[in-house]
Fold these 2 entries.
Entry 1:
Amino acid sequence: MDATLNPPGATAPAPTGLAAPADAPTAAAAAAAAAAPADAAAPVGPALAPSPAGSAVQHRPVVSELRLSAFGVHRGAVFGFGPVTLLTGPSGSGKSQVLAGYEALAGLGGGATLEQAFPDPRGRIPDRALPDGQGRRGFRIGCTVDGPAGPVRLDLAVQAEPTLRIVGERLSVDGRILLATALRDPGRRSVQASWLTGGAVGVTRAPLPDDRLGTALLPLRVAGSTAGQRQVLAAAEQVVVALRSAFPCDPHPERMRAPVPPGEGRLLGDCSNLADVLRRTRHECGTRHALLAAAARAGCAGPVQGLEVRAPAQGPVTAVLDRGPAAAATELGRLGSGELRFLALALVLLTGPGVLAMDPAAELLSARQALTVLADGFDRGLDGRQSAELLRLALLSCGRGHVRLAAAVGRETAEAARATPGVTVVDLTA
């Protein structure tokens, strides 16, 4: 065990492999604030005010770093993320685990429970991790989010056995602890939380549930009436906005071939409703639809003049490639698996949260958010031409600051991208 996450005075040690914040609030400070009531609820929003003109501060909150320890094959691992980040390495090196950790944090930031974020928590524990004297094992996961509030660190210690629960959480900026939680009574489904208040009180203490991200709950508990509270709100909102702006995407061609019933036109993570989304983009966003048609010409075999949709008044929606006046149109269901994956990923890179089945932070304008696409097996089933075109689209979209890409790719795609400006290649080769 590296250290204990519980602050002095805790009744139970942390599970094996869970590290503690070294600068957690002292017992004296916690005791001084024990009688302080929780702050009144406050709406989310004003804490993310824009920085002064000319500032180099990142205006759109983005995850710049992910930390994993005792998480699958990763122990004390740190991964940096840029606008376009490609993870590469041999099978079993942990590429998918990095994206799964990011996706789990994104779910927690969006209000998911720990069980929803980690449906198989035992599968995340290294095989050789030994339980402590009480049979407990777990892992650590954290991230850094850049934005108007500066680099904000979020660190979680998760107990996976015998009961799934968060045993410690820390939110900090420049080494200053803004929120710290610890498990004090294993018999209760709560953790003791303390957050910066400022003024005469200094610190506020209150219990929080042990199956949800405390950082995501702070905007409902902190009033923002003191400078300390406003700093806590700004940091918490920055983290939540960045995490909620993630879209995990893994197109399944076998689910994309059949015509689909008309719906609201929001793309699912498996892209099974691609035809319905194309129906929407064709009528609502001609510019992006034209860019997608141009991408289809680069990534699909044969002549492509455009992307069309057959949508009868009553009946399913079918998308087709327009082959021009000299040839019959080709239904997307007749395309190869690589072509379907290519079209789906191109659509994701060229569109925005309003067309994707995700729940971004509604309290912040979309122009102040950066969508992060998480794509495992980004180049799976694609040839070099298609992979190069998707990378070009990613750089085009990510260069504007509204979209970011974190993807696991094969060795050939990674090698081709190493010399490309704006691409971060993370090699997990042991």
Entry 2:
Amino acid sequence: MQLSDFDFDLPEELIATRPARPRSSARLLVADGASIHDQVVTDLVNWLRPGDRLVLNDTRVIPARLSGIRRRTSAQGETEAKIEVTLLEPRADGTWAALVKPLKKIKEGEEVRFSDELTASLESKEDGQGHLRFNLSGDDFDAALNVAGAMPLPPYIAAKRPADAQDHDDYQTVWARNTGAVAAPTASLHFDDALLALLRAKGVEFSHVTLHVGAGTFLPVKVDDITTHKMHGEWGQVSQAVVDEITATKAAGGRVIPVGTTALRLIETAAQDGELKAYEGVTDIFIYPGFEFHVADALMTNFHLPKSTLMMLVAALVGHDPILDIYDHAIAAKYRFFSYGDASLLIPPPRK
């Protein structure tokens, strides 16, 4: 398949820069087989059945965008320069891999001050990234980062407005608990406590997995032959308890429905040999048409970028032509797109 097979024209005004409030009031496109229904997220309770299981990604987004000052003393005296940092992931040696702008101007060993409490020194440069060692660790680091950092909004939102205090709440799920993501599992942003209570009362069950979403999720596909695309790696974990829960749901005739592509990618990674097993490690699974799904029976997800790996994933689930029809409907009906946009519930025909 070619990259152009996953392209479509998206009006700029349909890119959401703020979420719906309350969260569960966002619109929900339900594609059930060949039929399309215009709903709102609270209607999810009408489409799920007692015994269905939602798989939720409980990763917690860190405020990974930092603005700092580098001071340098030279023959001309002391000079200052602004440094912009986006944290990517912690490394085994205790440093953080980060995008640093301008990376060329900062020298190894130099210190950058982000606040009165938080500083970092550049230990090395590799593959266009800087490796930073912070002056704090553990809970002290988390507390200082929460004060100094801004939420790492996706590029298509950040280009329209800067992150602000409201994003600390808006860009975090209500069940976030395992810190480590630099992008949110955005389909999960539509859930609030009231909706969760309604679903529990309906008999819907929940399982939590962890996939720390990386900045690579926003990298464009640069090859025409999509089968040659190399996915970025992200750390994830599926516990034995979750395996047992999903297995029991399947045995009882319930459906397993990941909330978000991250949860789907992780549970399908854990079932690559056809049987779901406990999993911990890095996944770089690439799901595109022709992929054989072993666990997911449906998917709740937002509307994705043209020519993105996520567009390829949803096409794998429901079919290439059907997903283009779904997106044509969404655009005509003015659904809001991307991370802060509306949602879809994609229910393909049962697998044989």
